[in-house]
Every structure is written in C-alpha cells, then in structure tokens.
Amino acid sequence: MMQQIKNETLKEVFKQWASDDGVVVINPATEQELIRLKPSSIEELDCLIEACSAEQVRWAKLSAKERSSCLKNWHQLLMEHAEDIATIITL
Predict the structure, then answer these.
(1) Which residues, other chains included, contact 83 with Cβ-Cβ below 8 Å and sequence gap of 6+?
(2) pLDDT at position 11
(3) Is 10:81 a contact under the CB 8 Å cutoff?
(4) pTM
(5) How far is the C-alpha of 71 from the C-alpha of 77, rounded, in Å?
(6) Buried b / exposed e across 23-50, counting CB within 10 Å, b at 16+?
(7) How confident is the model over 51-65, as pLDDT tens digits?
(8) How many domains does the chain have?
(9) DSSP character at residue 62
(10) Least reliable range by pLDDT among 7-11, 60-64, 82-86
(11) Do 8 and 85 meet the contact criterion of CB atoms below 8 Å apart?
(12) Which range of residues forms the domain containing residue 50?
C-alpha cells in the first residue's frame, strides 16, 4: 500500500500508524494484507478528543471570511492529492 501513495507526508503518516504487531487491515477483494495499524490507547483517544475540542473553540471564533479561506485551502489540498486520497479510500 505504501508504494501506491505518492505524497511523502501521507507516507509518513502511514509509517507512524503502522506496527508489526498491530491490527491487520485486509483488502476484502483480494484478502491481501494492506497494513498493520497500531491500536490506540484510551489515553491517546482522550488526548485527541481534547485537542479537537480546543480546536473547535478556536474555529468558532473565526469570522466567516477566515473560515471560508480555510475551507478553500482545504479544498485545494484535496484536489492536489486526490489520487492518493482515492487510493487510500479504495483500499
């Protein structure tokens, strides 16, 4: 799977998520193992929830113009990396 992804940042993310003794993700069409993912701990999940909650407060304070700019940037990134995103979604 890693060799199919072209964007170096996405490759790095998958490297961080991967684990030799992790949860196996299998392609149901081919029964091929795609990746082994590290399971998350409750502490990690709590930390992520706290970070998202804090970010939502910051987002709520932005003006409509600032939010629009962020969403336009996000859209641009989605378009730039559409092929890698499609690869990940269809695995």
Answers:
(1) 6
(2) 82
(3) yes
(4) 0.62
(5) 10
(6) eeeeeeeeeeebbeeeeeeeeeeeeeee
(7) 999 999 999 999 999
(8) 1
(9) S
(10) 7-11
(11) no
(12) 2-89
